[in-house]
Design a protein that fits this description.
The protein has 331 residues and is α/β, with parallel strands linked by helices. It has 2 domains: 183 residues, Acetylglutamate kinase-like (Carbamate kinase); 87 residues, no CATH class. Helices cover 34% and strands 17% of the residues. The chain has a 10-stranded mixed sheet, with helices on both faces. Strands 5-6 form a two-stranded antiparallel sheet. Strands 8-9 form a two-stranded antiparallel sheet. The protein is globular.
Amino acid sequence: MPGVNGANGNHEHPFGVRTAGDACSGGVGPGLPTPPATNGHAFGVKSAEQNADAQAGRVSHPHQSEPHRESRQPVIVLKLGGSVLTGEAAIASAVEEVRGWVSRGYGVVAVVSAFEGETDRLLSLARSFGREAWATAALVATGEHTSAAALALALDAGGVSAATLDAAGIGLRTSAEALDASPRDLDVEALRTALSASRVVVVPGFVGRDERLRTTLLGRGGSDLTALFIAGRLRARCRLVKDVPGLFERDPKVDEAARLYSRVSWDGALALDGGIVQQKGVRFAKEIGLEFEVGALGEEFATRVGGEVCEFAREGVRASGLQAVREECAA
C-alpha cells in the first residue's frame, strides 16, 4: 500500500518531481482563501457548448446550472485506482461499488486505472526497447485499456449493463505532451448519449489523445485528473475511490494520532504530499471550483475536498479509518 499521504505529487515531470502545496489551517475552521473558478485557464477547459455560447455572444460559468437539463438522472464519476484494482480478483469489489451507485439512481462513469503494478511493469517493458515518448505512451496506455475492458465484462456478467469508451470515443483531447499532458476538451454529448443507453460507462483513466490523435498520458496518478476533468465537464458528482477511508492530516501508519479530515480545502489537500490524490488533479479542481470526495470501497464516509474550510471527522469515524489502515498494512 502506498503511504497514506505518500510522496508522489508529481508535476514538472510525470514520473519523479514533486511540488509543494500551501498549508491547510489546523483544526476546525476556515482554510486559505480560494480563487474564483476560471475559464480559459492553464488547463484550457472550454467545451463545445461554451464555444458555441461564445460565438453566439452568450457567457456561462463552467458549472452554471442548466434548467433544461434538470430532468436528467444524477451522474457520479467514480475513479477506481490501482490501489483498489489490485488484480483480477478485486474486480468483483469494483462491480459491487458501481452496482451500489446504480441502485441509488445514479448514472455512473467509472474511470479506471491499470491493475496495481501494471503501469510500472509496462514502463519497464517500454524502456527495455527504447525511450521514444510517444511509443512509450501508447504501450503504457494498454494497462488502462485492459482494466477498463475487464471491469465492463465483469459488470455485464454481474447483470449491470455497461458501455466501454476509450479516449477517442469520448473525445478526450489533451495538450501535446506525450507523458505529462493536460486535458483540453471532451465530447460531453457522446458521454451523455452513452449514459442514456446504458447506466454505466467505463472509461480508461490516465489516457488521452492530442490534436494529431496520438496517445498521451496525463502524468503519474493521472486517472484522478481524468475523473475530475470528466466530472467538471458533466457537472457531476465525483468520488475518487482509494484503499484508504479518506485524507489524513499526516500518515497514520507513522502517527496514529493523525486526524482524518471530513472536509479539507483544495489548499489543504495540496499541502499533503500527494500520494493519495494527484496534485495536478487537485490544482485543476481548484482552478474550476470543483469539489470532490475521497473514500474507500463500499463506505458511505468520504473526505470532501474543496472550498475554504478544513474539518476533522468524529473520533469514531477516525478510529474506524485507522483500523482499516492497519488491516491494509497487515495484508
